[in-house]
Specification:
It contains one helix and three strands. The chain is mainly beta. The chain has a three-stranded antiparallel β-sheet, with no helix packed on it. The longest helix has 5 residues. It is globular. 8% of the residues are buried.
Length: 66
């Protein structure tokens, strides 16, 4: 059976939502465990649970380029 292809959606003023089979790695090339099939990755750099989004972008007023 084929794995679901990864799909990444950039949400305006928010995180990247990653769906499907992905191999997340840190800067030292160590695997980052995923607890869900869909994960939100931080784009603002302020999350306390990086690389995952914790919603801090909202309070910080993070904006993406349009």
């Amino acid at each position: 059976m084929m794995a679901d292809p990864a799909r990444i959606t950039a949400y305006p003023d928010g995180p990247f939502l990653v769906r499907g089979e992905v191999d997340l790695r840190d800067a030292a090339d160590r695997p980052i465990p995923q607890k869900r099939r869909t994960v939100a990755l931080c784009r603002c750099g302020l999350s306390t649970i990086k690389p995952f989004c914790d919603g801090t972008h909202k309070a910080a007023g993070f904006r993406t380029d349009d």
